[in-house]
Design a protein that fits this description.
The chain has 257 residues and is an alpha/beta fold. The chain is 45% helix and 14% strand. The radius of gyration is 22 Å and the shape is elongated.
């Protein structure tokens, strides 16, 4: 019995593409791609650490782009950002199918990998749109608008253009507390950032970091929202369908200031 080869990569999209490159370069017959943050409890396996190289990643992506549409490429990236356990191997199987087929733009939804990718991409797309709708910024004393989020999927890379276009005239940070990184816009470019000690930030210290009039604005908006609500027309069931309760923590109007 030939041992299975487990390729360990750094968790980045380029790292995943480099894993695919190695599989084809070394003609690995039974590969498994796994993030280095995940433990490997399988017996009788060969482990190979993947070094991320931009050129190799570009070669794989260029070959994939030649045989797919833009929508397929976007869906592929969305599924990678889903972070679902084992999703790398679904994407690998999908890539192998794409590389084998002739130039044909028709999508075969009878293929289980293609169907799964389509379904997961829709899930990630919904989370992206919800983050775009539900993010609420708070102005800090540094005159930077700050927002914490904790989405189900890693959608920060997908929402950059929306917020850069919509809030082009102000500095802002959107920080993913679940994945411990954020995106910062400085009026020109967006860069990825991390905080050394976010655990030390409490509700009290956050309020102390607000600009002097930020809390007043939040109270005003909270009061306005309550006063314009028509109690006789309140439909809680429909409201929860449009704004699930797990998103309320982002909304100023849903929190007592």
């Amino acid at each position: 019995m030939n041992p299975q080869t487990v390729l360990i990569y750094d968790g980045t999209f380029d790292g995943f593409l480099c894993s695919v490159f190695i599989i084809y370069e070394q003609k690995i017959m039974s590969p498994v791609i796994r993030k280095e943050s995940q433990t490997n409890n399988q017996l009788f396996t060969i482990t190979e650490k993947v070094i991320t190289e931009e050129l190799k990643a570009q070669r794989v992506w260029h070959g994939f782009r030649k045989k797919t549409t833009r929508n397929e490429q976007r869906d592929f990236f969305k599924v990678f950002l889903s972070e679902i356990k084992g999703v790398e191997n679904t994407l690998l199987s999908y890539m192998q199918t794409i590389f084998k087929k002739k130039l044909n733009k028709n999508i075969d939804f009878s293929n289980k990998d293609i169907l799964k990718i389509s379904q997961v991409a829709r899930m990630v797309g919904r989370e992206k749109h919800r983050m775009e709708a539900f993010v609420r910024f708070q102005l800090t004393k540094d005159q930077i608008y700050f927002s914490n989020i904790a989405p189900d999927f890693n959608v920060l890379p997908l929402i950059i253009h929306h917020f850069k276009d919509r809030y082009a005239d102000q500095k802002w940070i959107i920080y993913d507390t679940r994945r411990k990184y954020g995106i910062y816009y400085d009026l020109q470019t967006v860069e990825v950032i991390t905080f050394e000690n976010l655990k030390g930030i409490t509700a009290t210290t956050r309020k102390n970091a607000y600009a002097d009039d930020e809390v007043s604005f939040q109270k005003l908006w909270n009061t306005y929202f309550k006063n314009v609500t028509i109690k006789s027309r309140k439909n809680t069931k429909l409201h929860l369908q449009h704004i699930p309760k797990r998103y309320w923590r982002y909304l100023t109007e849903k929190n007592n200031i």
